[in-house]
Structure formats: structure tokens, C-alpha cells
Design brief:
Length: 198
């Protein structure tokens, strides 16, 4: 006579089903929270834009100009020599000088325009800061920010932004570092793509 094997409760199957169910639930909750974070980031950016517009209106009504401190990044030859024992065109020697500018709705445009004017003070030059800006006929046409990528468009009919790799890498680093000081900028693309090429 055969003894019928008693079936046990399928604990393993239940555990797997519960685990899969919880995993799916957690994925759905994560997706919902991710959507909320993106929505919040959009709201913050929109708020900052409206705040800047309101500040401009207030300054127009009150006659008081609001200002902000920004950094312009320029090459420091003395620092390059200290770090490398000679001039090595080290982009780590591209460091900030501070400027105060009026608050505006387009601070990135304002800062890039100010940078390429190349206006260093005598004291800054005495400290080793140098730049080849302003370039003959180099024009900054504007900026567009999309998903953290800042597109900076230039016009350079005279070829100021081309030349040796040492010079071009320093010019490019000055622009990129200046733009990257803004929290919303994660990377910089210079346009057209043949600009700032050795």
C-alpha cells in the first residue's frame, strides 16, 4: 500500500509572488516620485525666471539696481608656471576673477559677453592674469539651455578662435568654466562645432 505524500503549503511560491509584487509596487512608486522631482525642478526654474522678472520691475520702479557677484575665468600665467615649472597651457591655471553685474533675466548671456570683452584690471594683470579676448570680429550670438546642456553660439568670420592647441584650449576653458558656475549648467557646447578648434 502506498502512502500518499502530504502536500505542504507552497511557501516558496508565495514568497516569490509577494517579492515580485512588492518590487513592481516599488518601481511604480519610484516612477511617480521621479515625475514629481522633474515637475518640482521645472517649477523651481519657472519660479526663478519670474523672480528675476519681478526684481527687474522693482528696480525699474524704485530706481535701485540689484546686483549679483559672478566669476569670469581667465588664464593666469604665473599660476601655470608655479604648477608646472614652465608655461604648459594648463587649463587648471584658468581661475576666477570676481565681477559685480546688474541682475537680469539672462545672466549667462551677460557673463559670457563680459568675459569675451577681456577687460582685466591692471591689478589682475599684475597678478598674472592674461587673455586674448576680445577677439577681432568674434561675436557672441546667444545661449540656449536644454536639460542642463548650455549651447553657446558664436560668430567668428576672422578665425580668431582657431590656432594652436595651447591657445585654443585656454580660450575654450575660459568660456566653459565661466558658464559652468551656474547651477543649471551641467555641460557646455560651443557652436558652430568648428569654433575653438586648433
Amino acid at each position: 500500500m502506498r502512502v500518499k505524500k502530504q502536500q505542504s503549503f507552497p511557501f516558496l511560491r508565495v514568497a516569490v509572488v509577494v517579492f515580485l509584487g512588492l518590487s513592481i509596487l516599488l518601481l511604480v512608486l519610484f516612477a511617480v516620485q521621479l515625475g514629481k522631482v522633474k515637475n518640482l525642478a521645472d517649477k523651481i526654474a519657472n519660479f526663478e525666471k519670474h523672480q528675476a522678472a519681478l526684481e527687474l520691475e522693482i528696480s525699474a520702479v524704485t530706481g535701485v539696481q540689484r546686483t549679483m557677484n559672478v566669476n569670469l575665468y581667465y588664464y593666469n600665467e604665473l599660476l601655470d608656471r608655479l604648477m608646472n615649472g614652465e608655461i604648459a597651457c594648463d587649463i587648471e591655471a584658468v581661475i576666477p576673477v570676481e565681477r559685480t553685474i546688474p541682475v537680469s533675466q539672462s545672466p549667462i548671456n551677460d557673463v559670457v559677453r563680459l568675459l569675451i570683452r577681456g577687460e582685466l584690471t591692471k591689478a589682475e594683470r599684475d597678478l598674472g592674469f592674461k587673455t586674448e579676448f576680445p577677439g577681432r570680429e568674434l561675436q557672441f550670438l546667444g545661449a540656449k539651455l536644454e536639460n542642463g546642456v548650455l549651447y553657446l553660439r558664436f560668430s567668428d568670420p576672422s578665425g580668431f578662435t582657431s590656432g594652436g592647441s595651447c591657445r585654443v584650449s585656454l580660450l575654450k576653458a575660459q568660456i566653459e568654466k565661466t558658464a559652468l558656475q551656474f547651477d543649471t549648467v551641467k555641460s557646455v557646447v560651443l557652436e558652430p562645432e568648428n569654433i575653438f578648434q586648433p
